[in-house]
Structure prediction request, 357 residues.
Amino acid sequence: MSSKQKVCILGSGNWGSSIAKIIGTNAARLDSFDSCVKMWVYEEMIDGKKLTEIINTTHENVKYLPGKKLPENVVAVPDAVEAAKDADILVFVVPHQFIPKLCASLVGFIKPSATALSLIKGFDVAEGGGIALISQIIQKQLKIDVSVLMGANLANEIADEKFSETTIGCRDKKIGQILKNVIQTDYFRVSVVDDVEAVEACGALKNIVAVGAGFVDGLKLGDNTKAAIIRIGLMEMIKFVETFYSGARLGTFLESCGVADLITTCYGGRNRKVSEAYVTSGKSIEELEKELLNGQKLQGPITAAEVNFMLKNKNMENDFPLFTTIHKICIGELKPSDLIEQMKLNTNTKTEQVDGE
Ligand SMILES: NC(=O)c1ccc[n+]([C@@H]2O[C@H](COP(=O)([O-])OP(=O)(O)OC[C@H]3O[C@@H](n4cnc5c(N)ncnc54)[C@H](O)[C@@H]3O)[C@@H](O)[C@H]2O)c1
Ligand SMILES: O=P(O)(O)OC[C@H](O)CO
Prediction:
């Protein structure tokens, strides 16, 4: 890495723009970073003007983070290669379904010495019937080290500079410190841990539970029911990580990326909001995503499908009844009201096991 490190942000949605506000401020403030931060923007027209031009003149992402000023040293660039080619630190923050195409466009054009930080919550389906972490997709395609950042991080609240915590998962202490320097502010506090896969899996899996929490809200079932879904969801997240990413530490679930993200997402997130409307409106999830999110993207239903793809292939759907039920509700195979019947069956089985011991 050169002495002044260049940072590029790949993505400019709700979280991408919010993190650009932080990174831009830190890059301008700290000597170790080049103050110019390029941000790749998936170009679109807003009222006849290019979004990149609007951002570069008004310093506001009027579509995905309206009402918040970005630092002037954050430069919107419509071409991903142009944005990334000189960067030492690549911050990936696109909705997870777009990552394979983005990475493919960068192959051969980035610095081989670059390091990546993925803020992306989700998986990708993999050859052989399994799933891959998003960091693994980036690493495999671009052949660079990838750290992750996950936490209880509703983007709008962070843009409002309300106190929040986050977790960076990084295997290399030196890189972990550099990443912490570029991300941490007085209101956004970073913990660095080396349990990278567990940190990332937590970020992806909590979006499935958030969909379940939204169903509970749509069914008007109350706080106790929602707490039950959160508890069962946490248990399935732990079991999933222990089963598929051996060596993970239980303590990681107590970091911001674990239980804290699960709580915030089940109360304040977009997955919760759209899933609640799915129950009350009778419209499809795709329709509601368009209607309610103004171009922002839902991650939970697709993540539930990706996880189910692997569980089904491994004949393990019954080992993760909440994840499986939520997926089946999303694709219309079960009704939202079936959620509770399925959970009763599950808790009955558990009780019988305990009684039988
Ligand atoms: N928003 C949050 O509060 C939040 C917080 C933490 C983590 N995350 C995670 O960060 C990631 C990015 O979320 P976000 O909120 O920044 O995005 P978003 O949900 O606001 O998505 C909109 C973005 O997707 C882009 N886009 C649309 N079509 C595209 C295409 N074909 N190719 C590439 N990009 C396209 C849009 O230009 C826009 O930048 C997700 O994995 C999400 O789970 C989001
Ligand atoms: O709005 P959601 O449901 O995509 O959740 C946003 C963040 O992941 C919360 O940390």
Observations:
- The pocket of nicotinamide-adenine-dinucleotide (ligand 1) is lined by residues 11-16, 42, 64, 93-96, 98, 119-122, 153-155, 295-297, 299 (CB under 6 Å).
- The chain has two domains: 5-194, 198-346.
